[in-house]
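> @MW can you paste both from yesterday?
MW: sure, first one:
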Amino acid sequence: MRIVNEFPREVIEEETWIPLKDGTRLAARIWRPKDGEQNPVPAILEYLPYRKRDLTLARDAQMHPYWAGHGYAGVRVDIRGSGESDGVLEDEYLQQELDDGVEILQWLEDQPWCDGQAAIIGISWGGFNGLQLAAMRPKQLKCIITICSTDDRYADDVHHMGGCLLGDNLSWASTMFDHNACPPDPDLVGDRWREMWHQRLEGSGLWLQKWLEHQRRDAYWKHGSVCEDFNDIQIPVYAVSGWADGYCNAVFRLLDGLTHVPAKGLVGPWAHKYPHMGVPGPAIGFLQETLRWFDHWMKGTDTGIMDEPRLRVWMQDSVPPSARYDVRPGRWVGEPNWPSDNIQPTAYKLTYGHDLVPEDTEVERKALDIQSPLFVGLYAGKWCSYNAPPDLPHDQRDEDGGALVFETPRLTEPLEICGQPYVELDVESDQPVAMVAVRLIDVQPNDKATRVSYGVLNLTHRDSDEFPEPLEPGKRYRVRVNLKHIAQKFPAGHSIRVSVSTVYWPLAWPAPKPVKLTVYLGDSKAILPVRPRRDADDAALPAFDEPEAAPPLEKTPIQPTHEEWTVIRDLANDKTTLQVINDEGLYRIERHNLEIGSRTTERYSYSGDDYQSLAGWTEWRRTFRRRNPEGEDWEVHTVTRTLMTSDPETFRIRATLDAYEGDSRVFAKTWDEAIPRDLV
């Protein structure tokens, strides 16, 4: 990444408070041109609960000054109840959060250095509330860039996929359990830090319980899902994601739904990262791309960005399977519109001989049974990859022993797909609650198998996520399993595999009991979105700039980091455990004389084929400390632990929260909750 030390406009930085009508103060850091009061500028808001003072400071320091140096005010605000902002954060995307966001925009309009215009940019949470605030139509908001976010909080978020409960639901709840237990910094809030901290410790609650109480698409999830009415959004939207990210599907749905406003889509090879820091690479000059967008919509500058294709995606070349990639080879391709007339849906039938054959082939109308062991999914990686620890899917041969496998002959010429693959299955189940997982796989000449895309479906949600219905054992159903959108090249000499299983643990929580599915062949088929090559059009696309950013934050490592993604098979006791460790070590932010450490451990386990032995366990350990040679040291530790188990009728959560000042435990709370399963 190229570091930019000088900008067209001199930048100043300030910490400030944004007062709200109810007396609450939100903590903000603002980077803006020094001459902003003489020459006012538009504001770019990033609105998050992830602590601007410390946990996102390194990222913020390279983006917001960059925008400020090019004639904007970069504004980073902590959501109510997070960082140094007043209050208690009780859940995601509450109406209070959005109402506060509208007040922030009103406050920005009134500042002497702001010209009255604002944009919102954000990744993940900040991408969510950017869409949600756009749907509220505040007059100051002129455009947004939403990155790694979703338009549908039930169908396509960290909680559920295809009506199945995701393992990332537990993982993400544990992340926020930790973050909500963090104290504000006394250097900013003074002596009231302890009172604010204890309010959060007592009041934030157990989010995992709240989420598990909503296992179908009810009003809880509809709130904040802009897909309920895309017409609520009346400003330009730039939607961005990566193929390794959990949220790539939303880019395509947004382009499909936002036909009444200018909209663009961009999907690279990246995990859950800003594209100028994108891994797997190649990263791009995304900050330059944001300036082209903001300059067009807020400064009236013809940057050419709207003359380019509506959708640009990274067409991935074939790679061997790996849990982590530095770079995914490929090329940029573009579609002038989405949905695209250039995509040719191409069907392949699943056969009794385990082949994938063209749709016009006559095949035997027989059936195959599958009852997968619980190990199918151990090598699936995370639903939402961060590419650290190594969390991408590994060789799929480790999974396919527990699946029905269907495969094409070796390809005689390359085939490229772009869009959403899906599979139509004729199935029957021996249980009233069942799931099916489908994987699309690139098989190399040496038989190594790389997962290209996948999807899971809770079969009780076959017709509706809002009104699921149990299956009638022995009855035959026709279902559609949507896989994640993807752009992928299958080279000549490779083959294409579709694998079908009844388990995908721990990426998705299994059905209440073991399930045997019968798949009827003849009409069951896989549909691939084939994209014929258009080399001249794709070669004419303008190249993205190389990544650049403002100078990095000065951080001093104190203790080393450690990452681990390990499958442990205890054959003597027939117990299997997936263990994930993400130890960020200990480091010092020199500008604040603040030392920060964290260590996350997750374990997902089962014994034999015992569905009641399924367990997910997480632990976060967090440290903040400041060594003060001229006064009293400040040191705070928190430990949060969550254990989730299940039986056929119930999900069970046991959780603990402990907080320490120095060596003294100053707060402790436990939870033991049972939530009935609702056709999950």
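MW: second:
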Amino acid sequence: MPINLEKERLEILKRYRKLLRTAKPFLKDDDAKQIKKAFLISAEAHKDMRRKSGEPYIYHPLAVAQICVEEIGLGTTSIISALLHDVVEDTDTTLADIEKDFGPKIASIIDGLTKISGTFEYGTSQQAENFRKMLLTLSDDIRVILIKLADRLHNMRTLSSMAKEKQLKIASETIYLYAPLAHRLGLNAIKTELEDLGLKYTEPEAFKEIANKLSVNKRNRESFVDHFIRPIKKSLDELHLNYTIKGRPKSIYSIYNKIKSSNTPFDKIYDLFAVRVVIDVPLEREKADCWEVYSIVTDHYRPNPSRLKDWVSTPKSNGYESLHTTVMSLPYGNDKEGRWVEVQIRTKRMDEIAEKGVAAHFKYKGTDTRTSQAFESWLSQVREALETNDKSQSAVELVDDIKNSLYHEEVFVFTPKGKLVVLQVGSTALDFAFEIHSEVGAKCIGAKVGGKLVPLSHKLSNGDQIEILTSSKQKPSEDWLRIVTTTKAKARIKDFIKEENKSHVIKGRDMIEHRLKILGYPSLTLEITNQLRAYYNAKDANDLFYRFGKGYVAIEQLKHWKSDKEMHERKQAEKAIQVPIVDNKSFTKEMKRVQHDRKDADILLIGEDMDKVDYTLAKCCNPISGDDVFGFVTINEGIKIHRTNCPNSPELLSRHGDRVIKAQWASQIAMSFVVDLVIRGIDRVGLVNDVTRVISDELKVNITALNIGVKDGLFEGRISLMIQDTDHLVALVGELERVAGVIEVAREE
């Protein structure tokens, strides 16, 4: 299709002018001139570049800048940074050039947004290193994270033009890291859209099914909401409050998670939407008026006392404030019974913070100390974890620690003097001790909760008042890492035991080097260290040395590693590929060599390439012919084939994208696979006989294991079967669902 350059030029100007119009209310002095300068530099730098969709590349930085202004509420510095965010990475422009034109602040932000180049030690993750680099800028400028989220949101919105394996990798990384980050920064609308778009590409069938059902139910839902809010509106009008009230469906991703976690079909999920009341009142009346609206709602509908959430009195640590209650509606339409409806009550200020998160939080900073303190508390925890992080902890571990602090509910507890302390749900008395002070945590021997003595591992509940007991003889141990939940406590415990561990690490390394020389290896190379680390499932090299130095692993065990290594090398020597495959680049290179530049040489054909490549089917998800799959290059066990919806796939795809290779089933594959099915239903006499008859007699499928249990008239069974492919599986599931009494048949995840 021919490119109309003039039409594209006019479209670029149109998008640029829209950006200026959106930003106009807060532009000062020569802001517009600086934005124009950044736009012209970006347009010139990207003039010969196009996106995968075929569009001019400049559309992307313009869109990212538009999201920053319109959807996050950022200002001039962020607009300029967003327009230039890919210039250093993709063109000859340097950070020094940016600093000369726009100053050190914008150069620093763009440095945080620019991916790390260079080589990485095998076994590390470039994605994790990039994520760490970006998080480190939290200490200086949180706008780096916000612009990166805008960048990721636009990439997700335009992901359809990418290759399928790229879609899967980017979508998995988005769900694993970026959606939780948006959640923690209070960007609710962006978090929801990232999750939904992530699901669209990782579980397309499930996404489509839920989206279609929501669309079909839309008119009934709107009619129900109108009926539900009518009496509330009447009472609010009588009070002459300035308010808006609306119903909105839950996100597709949250509905999908509820279906999956509770085994509840879509038709049985009643809280598919929430009603939100937003009032516009002065700051000093916010709390009182929110409770007055709550009183009105509960005058009309019966509340569920266990579902009242008061984040107005105590905001969440990301600054979120709102009053949530769940009430029982009256029967309406075809419903013979009422249904539970969540009602959210908040002010206009609270609503802006809930939707635009941290940007709105800084806009209102100083007007509400509780919100500021809560958010600053979390930021300081992240900074602390980043600043205390040492080289012995890999980027992958650090990212995991940070991620664990992103998505969590909170528990509100008190010191003996009544000071409020906010921790994540699941926190223990030991977490609380480290939250008070590192030295208090290190000397902690127990605690009193409500005057009663409890152990270090005691999990805290809302309202607990805790007194920490200490001893000068106490010192942290590795077991404590299994007790604590918070990033801060984990970091402090690691710091305390690191010094003690140093001697064991040195001793272990010396022992390994000495024994390797006896076994015929002249030195402990990086390659051998990585092989040993994988063989003994150690987190890193220091962990490996420590285990040997401490005596957890006997030095005699190295002879077993040597024999297993030699056996693996003999097996590998039988394959056509002789060079070790360490990532997708080395895989493609070797496959092209042995396949003589076969057109699809970068794809592993399962069933055909067994004689060339060492690969196995992953046991965590048991892929079968017909499943969407990918290959993952392990450190010590060759290539593992995983299903794209494997429980481990988000982590593998988002942390180690450079070790993911394309894989598909050979067209003429003739193999049998073990598949585990879960069958649930209502028990009756002869049910097991009917199920096994359908499987063995009618469908001629071999059963390898069968276990069925009955409780209170309901049964649940797990059956392992030999299946040829997904079509065979679908046919089998269809037949089993026709058996009288069987309600649900599902492949076990």
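> thanks! The chain is about 50% helix and 15% strand.
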